Amino acid sequence: MSRLFWIIIAIIGGGLILLVTSGDRGTVFGIDDSVFARTLYLGVWGIVLAASIIATRMPLGDIARNIAVWLFIILTLVAGYQYRYELQDVASRITAGIVPGSPISIEGGSAVRLDKRGDGHFGARAQVDGATVHFVVDTGATSTVLTAADAGRAGIDVATLSFRVPVSTANGIARAAATSVDSITLGPIERNGLAVLVAAPGALGQSLLGMNFLETLAGFEVRGDVMILRD
């Protein structure tokens, strides 16, 4: 082992001397300095790896199998990193198929896709102060409106609210109370300190994601049964 150590030191030392003495030429034996330095670095590690393999005295078949396994693991990790956004999209699509209204992250996480539900509305499964809320996206609603039940699960004390704001619902005019939430998160899109309305208990069947949220986006569009929200 001590002999191997001194051999490696000699190689590194010789390579460094050649790099230093190359001066302004920028080449060593006709090879660019940076390429020579990289080759020297990889060569030293190759010697160390080869010596370690030889020292184990394992059968060549076992060595080849272990190297193949590690190469497969490394290539899998590299491929997973390179295609991380595509894999996220696949995972989002699977989740959306299982849980209606789940946002699908697209375009590298800068946009969200929502699919139209069976009832013809676009649903959005979002987090309001950590609580899951199933919204209907309503471009006709000026404000985002929470049902009393959703507001309670998000930590809002509904009993202390004053329901004085008139809002239009499918069942006519209802009363709501003005308040705010710390955050609304829809996939990779998050908005903080958003003003919302809380409908009086029993006045609203489902929470509405209104224009005061949509207008904070870079844009949104509808393509048939798909809605795209861009941050």
Automatic annotation (TrEMBL):
Q: Does the keyword Transmembrane helix apply?
A: yes
Keywords assigned: Hydrolase, Membrane, Protease, Transmembrane, Transmembrane helix
Please name the GO terms that the record assigns under molecular function: aspartic-type endopeptidase activity
| GO BP annotations, alphabetical order | proteolysis
Tagged with keyword Transmembrane helix: yes
Give EC number(s), comma-separated.
3.4.23.-
What CDD domains does this protein map onto? retropepsin_like_bacteria (cd05483)
The record's Pfam families line, in alphabetical order, gives: gag-asp_proteas
Q: InterPro entries under this entry? A: Aspartic_peptidase_AS, Clan_AA_Asp_peptidase_C, Peptidase_aspartic_dom_sf, Retropepsin-like_bacterial
Q: Could you list the residue ranges that cross the membrane?
A: 5-23, 35-55, 67-83
Please give the name of this protein: TIGR02281 family clan AA aspartic protease
**Source species of the chain:** Nitratireductor arenosus
